[in-house]
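The protein record passed on for reference:
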Amino acid sequence: MSTQLASLRLKKNEDRRIKQGHVWVFSNEVDIVATPLKSFEAGQQVIIEASNGKPLGMGFVNPNTLICARVLSRSPKLELNMKFLKKRIQAAQDLREMSFDKPFYRLVFGDSDGLPGLVIDRFGDVFAVQITTAGMEVVKDDIVQIIDNLYHPQAIVMKNDTQSRKLEGLALYEEVVLGEMPDELIIEENDTKFSIPVEGGQKTGWFYDHRMARGRLQTMVKGKRVLDVFSYLGGWGVAAANAGAEEVTCVDSSEFALDGVDTNAALNGVAEKLVTIQGNAFDVLNALRADGQKFDVVIVDPPAFIKRKKDFKKGSEAYRRINEIAMRLLEKDGILVAASCSHHMTRDNLLTAVQSAARHIDRNVQLFEQGHQGPDHPIHPAIPETEYIKTLFFKVSPTW
């Protein structure tokens, strides 16, 4: 039996973004006289109303955050319950099955799948769940139950150790909440196998978002000498070796990550092609240059150098510098793959950074291919923040 939800009323003219399709309500948009924010509990379901009392939809609220509410449905008659969650997760599943014939993908991508603050990565029979909103935390047990009912998984692990949970007043933890984790978890991507450290690994253990660009790279590397910078577990580098690269060098600051590269190289029978170097990427690349090393292909896929808007100037300079050093390591007419996972570093910003680097060292660059986040990371057209992955493929030549 449904219950009457409380109302969260917006100020006059503050409903325009919501009417245009966005789902975030900011605290300064709320009429706190009519509906005081402090009267709500974190994660409480509400009816979001325009200033005239007309319902805009159903969502949940967190009175303690800048984004104080998120719209779940334009229908004020629905509630966030087992039925609602199951329908949204099944819709997300249908979209993934259009693109992937094996069960390795991001099953739910937050706002883009109508489930704000919920990410589910599927690794075959193991599911990694990450919750970053109080509203989803309230229905955590329902989420686990639905995954169990739909997929009968071997294990479900909560990867709730991301720092963004602190903004919502949520505790950080990692826990296997159903079943038992296998001794080794192997996924397949672009005909390459990877052993994934879900427990203890970065984020949910793997980054599916660059999958399509990594597949494109595989068509370019046969017989080439490849350098994979910020390699993590070798998503680019091991895939390149598996596609016929002659030699691959993977660089990462993490010993844990490079142990994973070695494991994945062996898993694909390409261990003899792989070399790993642990260290700061800028330092390692400068050392390789001093040693006279050259590569046919260099991939630069760093962590987000620009996590906040105020970091833009410093971060964009870091993108420029690392791509400049990468160009210096390329053979004549080599390929530079410049990637970014920062929403604040737009495609045009990244293109400008690479062009600036090229001019600084008197190189000519031609952008001949572009990569985008995979179809398991759909974009919500009204929410620019859901689009963050970009990959640019350049031919780098002496100046004309």
Remarks:
- The first strand starts at residue 6 and ends at 9.
- The chain has three domains: 6-73, 82-179, 186-398.
- Residues 6-73 form a domain with the Archaeosine Trna-guanine Transglycosylase; Chain: A, domain 4 fold (CATH 2.30.130.10).
